[in-house]
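TA notes, week 10

Several of you asked for a full example with nothing omitted. So below is the full record: structure tokens for the whole chain, then the designed sequence directly under it. When grading your own attempts, check the secondary structure regions first.
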């Protein structure tokens, strides 16, 4: 499944999806990319990618609109379902604003893929579907693809992003079992690396907060980090190899918030940084393993390289500059819910 075959990438203008589109185009694929608005400046960068003029087709599509997704997927041999809603700070109706788009949207993509006789669907899930208070998982045991976050614990904590990821990944794998559609999932950790799109995404805001500092507390949990370019490689790998199955954790580097701060302070002195007093101590559960992906031939950049490339990009893009009168830097609320 390589070469000039057509594949669909949902949410093509997003952080991970943009790098995936770039990789697919460089490998000779024809890409059908779904976007919310064909005229949005936030997706203009896709048209500048190598081979985009010849091999990229953008489709206006809404995950909640089956017909628009079916139109984008028609004629494709594979689908990469990357699009996912990120919750605003104050959800007024979590079921409507977060869970419906994630679950119904995934169902629409899978049904459209089945109807189009797609060969394989790769669904992007998250580490948050693996690591949060898993039931019946021995303390200290490395967390692998058999480990699932506790959905009800997340729901009771009003952690709606993890709930959406857990439910949609479970539904995608079950759909594959029931229908015979070849469905695999990839669970990235906290994604760092340079951006292709013009807007700052949530995981970039996470790292910017460490560098610029602010008043918000940060939990000293064990953060699992992966480079965005390595995520794109992993997604293409599980699409192209003959016999992938089930889930694939994509989170090779584990580092505590305090250790991440120490690393940044040693490499980039001169920034205001988050205060160590704002990093709240907590227990560190066992890390996750990405061995399943590595056995398929996946490799990843060292963490220090990813951090260096990310910070260099932030510097060049002006993301670390202080603007007079600007609001203080805030820690993305999403990450205090996972």
């Amino acid at each position: 499944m390589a070469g000039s075959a057509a594949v669909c990438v949902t949410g093509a203008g997003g952080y991970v999806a943009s790098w995936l589109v770039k990789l697919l185009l460089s490998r000779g694929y024809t890409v059908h990319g779904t976007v919310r608005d064909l005229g949005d400046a936030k997706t203009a960068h896709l048209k500048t990618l190598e081979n985009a003029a010849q091999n990229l087709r953008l489709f206006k599509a809404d995950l909640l609109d089956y017909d628009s997704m079916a139109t984008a997927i028609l004629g494709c041999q594979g689908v990469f379902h990357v699009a996912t809603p990120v919750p605003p700070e104050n959800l007024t109706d979590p079921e409507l604003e977060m869970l419906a788009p994630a679950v119904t949207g995934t169902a629409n993509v899978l049904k459209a893929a089945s109807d189009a006789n797609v060969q394989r669907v790769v669904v992007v899930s998250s580490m948050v579907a693996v690591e949060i208070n898993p039931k019946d998982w021995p303390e200290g045991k490395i967390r692998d693809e058999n480990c699932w976050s506790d959905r009800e614990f997340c729901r009771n904590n009003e952690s709606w992003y993890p709930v959406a990821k857990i439910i949609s990944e479970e539904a995608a794998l079950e759909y594959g079992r029931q229908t015979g559609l070849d469905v695999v999932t990839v669970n990235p950790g906290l994604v760092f690396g340079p951006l292709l799109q013009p807007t700052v995404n949530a995981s970039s805001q996470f790292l910017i907060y460490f560098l610029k500092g602010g008043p918000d507390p940060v939990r000293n949990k064990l953060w699992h980090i992966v480079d965005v370019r390595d995520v794109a490689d992993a997604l293409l790998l599980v699409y192209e190899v003959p016999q992938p199955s089930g889930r694939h954790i994509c989170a090779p580097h584990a580092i505590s918030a305090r250790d991440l701060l120490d690393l940044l302070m040693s490499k980039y002195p001169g920034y205001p940084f988050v205060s160590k007093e704002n990093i709240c101590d907590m227990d560190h559960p066992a890390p996750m393993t990405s061995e399943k992906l590595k056995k398929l031939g996946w490799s990843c950049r060292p963490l220090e390289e990813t951090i260096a490339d990310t910070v260099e990009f932030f510097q060049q893009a002006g993301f670390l500059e202080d603007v007079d009168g600007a609001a203080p830097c805030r820690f993305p609320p999403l990450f205090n819910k996972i």
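The mean pLDDT is 92. Use that as a sanity check on your answer.
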